[in-house]
Amino acid sequence: MHRYRTHTCGQLRDTDDGQTVRLSGWCHRIRDHGGVLFIDLRDHYGLTQCVADPDSPAFKLVESFRSEWVVRLDGKVRKRPAGTENSDMPTGLVELYVTEAEVLGQAGELPLPVFGDQDYPEETRLKYRFLDLRRERIHNNIMLRGKVVDSIRTRMKGSGFNEFSTPILTASSPEGARDFLVPSRIHPGKFYALPQAPQQYKQLLMMAGFDRYFQIAPCFRDEDPRADRLPGEFYQLDLEMSFVTQDDVLGTMEPVYRGLFEEFAKGKPVTQAFPRIPYAEAMEKYGSDKPDLRLPIVMQDVSEHFRGSNFKVFARLLEDAKNRVRAIPAPGGGQRTFCDRMNAWAQGEGQPGLGYIFWRDNEGKTEAAGPIANNIGPERTEAIRAQLGLKAGDACFFTAGDPAKFAKFAGDARLRAGRELNLVDENRFEFAWIVDFPMFEWSEEEKKVDFSHNPFSMPQGGLEALQTKDPLTINAFQYDLVCNGYELASGGIRNHKPDAMVKAFEIAGYSEQTVVERFGGLYRAFQYGAPPHGGMAAGVDRIIMLLAGEQNLREVALFPMNQRAEDLLMGAPSEASAKQLRELHIRLNVPEK
């Protein structure tokens, strides 16, 4: 007999009745039923109920067992007594009658229980992550992660992609976030950077003629953490393709993402044909470039109904041609208490308020109510209701001013109203491509034109557009994949022509010399026969978070950091010794506390 086990804790069935077997695992739960001890023994594969009574030679030792002790149990498999079977467990028709036992590893008092799914403070969970990972939900999430990554690899290789690993120690590159720097001992005063993304390397692979590349790439960004972004490091499905248009990239990858979600969606519907929504349209209709399409609320422009009206706040705003009034329909929200609650929420968000109209039935007639309705009169309110397709019992809210400034708030209000009214269908995955992103934007902070998305993207219209058009009117061949309100992937067709690349960076305030210094490898490669190419990168952690039904990426990562970018388990970041600092030629200048 094997030293530790003949079977796993998820393996025994009623066909094993009468066999003598050996199991090893953790004491998941121990119950004393009138002197008869029941131990739910757990390993990676499942649970088996084990029983010891006073007639068992191992009874005295089993009495000493405590939660999470690691033990070996020998005994005979027997069918559970009628009425005690557990159909929820694969092993639920049998139990092990214990005849011999051995303690393989004792456990001290637990800082958090493994049995059950109680909510514990993040600091405790991360410090004792090895215990947290024993919990069924988290353990299953990590196993799901492995299956999803396996499926991604299979699907990508089936689509003609080859997997390559790109360097981890590289040069600093402006990807939109701070780099993690690594000092060089051999080259005093110089630093490597951990890659924010393999952007330049994957483009160089296309220059080298490999045609289709992918990898599950580790990426490192010194950013503040949030629920949908891990601090420090994350993984992305990184890919690039040669001789492709935007349609080719989207057409190749859409079946990959759709098939992946269908495989792991547990029956939830998945969008079959992903709609393509221009960025400007997404901002106008949803107030977001990652709209949650499970929510059927679509915002509309109602400026004409307020122009010249007695509601002077909006009427005066509309005297400026750039200003607009947008309506956020709220089906089922036609109660003053709900409208006042939304208004109070808006004030809590730093807004002066959130104007509204709601409609109610008055002796068979639909009647508008609220301060705005009283100001603009029944004819205008009826026109708004008709345009929005609303009825008695519904409401709508209004945002006004420069759309570029109020879009985010309007989008937040749309989501808030939809969630409060339970309009979001939680049991589906709604995908869309967001396309036609602006190439440039105005940076109010730096008072200059800057890149809005990805500096390596091809402008629509190419070099001619860069030379002849207002930069703020140029769109790029850039696209995002969004699902249920999250950005899952981002990419673009690359600007592979040196003169167009230099011109694009000049518009954003970078000289040709700067381009050569910072992107020298890519710039040189473009001089020697660069194929048209494009690609994207999808957040693996975010995909798994959605498939697992979690709200936080830390629930699907093995050993995540806390909100302060600290690894509480391993004690990172930690201080370097004086010897290490001398070898790296570094002197610290730490700010005073």
Task: Please explain how this structure is put together.
By secondary structure, the protein is α+β, with helices and mostly antiparallel strands. It has helices at residues 59-63, 122-127, 129-132, 136-158, 199-207, 246-264, 279-286, 303-306, 312-317, 336-348, 371-388, 403-420, 462-468, 498-507, 512-518, 520-526, 540-548, 578-583, and strands at 20-33, 36-43, 46-52, 70-79, 94-105, 162-163, 181-183, 191-193, 212-221, 232-242, 276-278, 300-301, 324-330, 355-362, 365-369, 395-401, 431-435, 440-443, 448-451, 478-483, 486-493, 533-539. The protein has an eight-stranded mixed sheet with strand order 6-9-10-22-21-20-17-11, with helices on both faces. Strand 2 and strand 3 form a beta hairpin. Helix 4 (136-158) crosses helix 17. The longest helix has 23 residues, at 136-158. The protein is globular, with a radius of gyration of 30 Å. The N and C termini lie far apart (62 Å).
